[in-house]
Amino acid sequence: MTDTFDFVVVGGGSGGCAVASRLSEDPNTSVAMLEAGGKDDNWVVTTPGALVLMVAGKVNNWAFDTVPQAGLNGRIGYQPRGKGLGGSSAINAMVYIRGHRSDYDQWASLGNTGWSYADVLPYFRRSEDNADFGGEYHGKGGPLAVNKLRSDNPVQQTFLQAAREAQFRVRDDFNAEEQEGLGIYQVTQKNGERWSAARGYIHPHMATRSNLRVETNALATRIMFEGKRAVGVEYKQGNETRQIRARREVILSSGAFQTPQLLMLSGVGDSAALARHGIESRHHLPGVGQNLQDHPDFIFGYTSNNPNFTGVSFGGLARIFRAIGQYRRERRGPMTSNFAECGGFLKTRPDLDAPDIQLHFGMAMVDDHGRKRHWGSGFSCHVCLLRPKSRGSVALKSADPMQPPLIDPNFLGEVDDLEAMVAGYKTTQRLMETPALRALQKKDMFTAGIKTDDDIRAILRARVDTVYHPVGTCKMGANDTMAVVDPKLKVCGMDGLRVVDASIMPTLIGGNTNAPTIMIGEKAADMIKAEMRVG
How far is it, in rounded angstroms, from Cα 533 to Cα 173? Predict the structure, then answer.
């Protein structure tokens, strides 16, 4: 006999955790969540400094590759994505950013009623338990812990000094009235430990809510339909193929790559593209997998003799061992670092309405997402373009659900993105060349000898990759032929099927995407509850 629940949530990432938790608050509503990875409740996940073990490898990580990128000299890019409860919030750098208010007002202007900044702010606040900031922009007591870093790294003050020397604003809170400026990031941590979406929304309730069932190591392989109505999900768990049914809705929360993949595997997508893989079309929806957007990112890297940086050296290893001891005793120090401790938002031109680049200043030197190791300690500074014009896609590699999808971010596919990144490079270089940061530099690893704009274009094409913010592949829209979901997040032309993750973003927000995805889960739960009250 097949188990039946009111809601089946596919994917235990940031959006899925939030929507499943909120729906299961009502003891009369039954919710099942399917997660392809594990519980993600061990020390590798909870210790912030251990993120290096996950991002660069396959621990709790799908570790996808892109197709060759024409704008990046044909290079294959890397796309780490969280695999396990909490999704990418269990492997990310924990930076708590919401984006710019204009991002959400733009969503509303595209016909997405109910998604303006004024509409979504209450959901950001409701999700949040902010230890440092309050007032009209911040929440207390929500499931998601937000705190200042406990790494106690003195280089933070050096970074702020450099910001002043470069004549950039210094800002304490990037999530209030104004965003522009540089500062020290708040993080999704509590008591020096990572606070993933699962830790906030799911782990506390797994043993206490009889109406919430969480199945881990359960990979969804297809959505089950009766006509145009989604009625359940087929999934693989170990060597067994199982089915689970939904009375009310199937909610897809598998992220910007795997949500469109599952739709296409189930016959929902561009019918001609599906036919090439022998998949019968259930519903022709050409926007599925289109509109992929991500932040192209370039990294400045330097070796340094400063003892406060992490790296592969005798001194660096000794520092790590000392840091582990301190972390065990106090939950403070270098093991609480998210690496990207500082950064902020800058305009490459003063006439812009909102910042167009974001910096992440890292307390280690990073090359190829940490996959290429160098002897010695050092530091990095990422610069990413916040609103690229390039649009990519996600497509099926085959009809086999065990195969990863074909991911094409189309980085620097539009020449305007390359020129904007040149401006971003120069703006970041101003910061790197301040006396405060020059004093930390022993060797410039990647940008020595880069002089002209053509030099900059060449190094960008040679080294740009993702900063881990893919969105948009199940675009939300109204009266839009490429929309996949409507403003209620219901899949267009289908019944009993909703998408609740970053894939619904019509445009990429100007910042990190974890907090906005949790907001989407919170708002979706409210919309569903309102419909249940009426229906």
Answer: 38
The 3-state DSSP class for residue 242 equals: strand
| Predicted confidence (pLDDT) per residue in 301-324, tens digit | 999 999 999 877 766 677 888 999
Which of 463, 497, 525 marks a domain boundary?
463
- Mean predicted confidence (pLDDT) in 115-127: 98
Query: Where on the phi/psi map is residue 156: left (φ > 0), alpha (ψ -120 to 50), or beta?
Result: alpha
Round the CA-based radius of gyration of the chain to a whole number and report it: 22
Q: How many domains is the chain built from?
A: 2
Return the percentage of the chain with pLDDT > 90, whole number: 94
Cα 228 from chain centre = 31
Domain span at residue 304 reads 150-184+296-385+413-463
**Is residue 283 among the annotated active site residues?**
no
What span, in angstroms and rounded, lies between the C-alpha atoms of 525 and 22?
A: 6
Regarding whether 441 and 329 lie in a shared domain, the answer is yes
Asked if residue 15 has pLDDT above 80, the reply is: yes
Mean pLDDT of 203-227: 98
404 near 62, Cβ under 8 Å? yes
Asked, for residue 190, whether it belongs to a domain, the answer is no
Ligand-binding site membership of 92 (annotated):
yes
Give the three-state DSSP class for 328.
helix
Residue 175 annotated in ligand binding: no
Give the pairing type, strands 229-237 and 240-252. Answer: antiparallel
* Residues 265, 208 share a domain: yes
The answer to whether the predicted template modeling score (pTM) of the entire model surpasses 0.70 is yes
Say whether 432 counts as a known binding-site residue.
no
Q: What percent of the chain has pLDDT over 70?
A: 99
Residue 88, pLDDT above cutoff 80: yes
